[in-house]
Amino acid sequence: MVCVRKAKDEELAKAVVRDRTPGSMCLFSTPFLLRANKSTGYRLSVLTLSQSLAEALDELQLTTTRLTDRFAENNEHFHIADLDLNPSGKAFAKIAFRTWLAKTERWKQESKTVPKLKESLIAEYRKFEVARGAA
Fold first, then answer.
1. Which of 83, 85, 134, 135 could form a disulfide with 24 if both were Cys (CB 3.0 to 4.6 A apart)?
2. What is the pLDDT of residue 4?
3. Residues 48/53/58/62 CA torsion (nearest 10 deg)
4. Cα–Cα distance for residue pair 38/17, rounded to 1 Å
5. What is the pLDDT of residue 113?
6. What's the pLDDT band for 68 if we cut at 50, 70, 90?
7. Dihedral class, residue 23 (left if φ above 0, else alpha if ψ from -120 to 50, else beta)
């Protein structure tokens, strides 16, 4: 079973690299994260995070493509490249996204639900907008 999962994870990682547009930079990769840990709980938390990202970024209209459609198509292949984001999305990713991600890593596992992650990302984006407007 471990060999099958390892082969599948390597195949997923190769698919993201193959599907990526030349010259673009991958900002978030579900296959990359899934390779880090084989436990079912961890895999579920990565997929929850991925779904939250797709929904929040689409809802905030920070994307050039529908990330929720990509996630629904194949959640284990989900990734976000810089070309998937509009200029506001790229600015947010560059300045505030990593901060938000680090904050969520400290959350208790049971707190990491799609609605809560989405709500916190939207709140982080609102703070980013205020700071950017004040500058």
1. 83
2. 43
3. 180
4. 21
5. 94
6. very high
7. left
Domain count, the chain: 1
* Nearest-angstrom CA–CA distance, 39 and 44: 9
Q: What does the alpha-carbon distance between residue 66 and residue 72 come to, in Å, rounded to a whole number?
A: 10
Q: What residues contact residue 31 under an 8 Å CB cut-off, 6+ apart? A: 9, 12, 13, 15, 16, 76, 77, 79
Which pLDDT tens digit goes with each residue over 46-60?
A: 999 999 999 999 999
Residue 121 lies in domain = 2-134
E strand map for 2-129: 26-29, 79-81
Burial environment of residue 116 by CB neighbours within 10 A (0 to 12, 13 to 18, 19 or more):
middle
Give whole-number Cα distances, 130 to 28, 55, 61, 95, in Å.
25, 22, 17, 13
User: Could you report the per-residue pLDDT of 87-105, keeping only the tens digit for each?
Assistant: 999 999 999 998 999 999 8
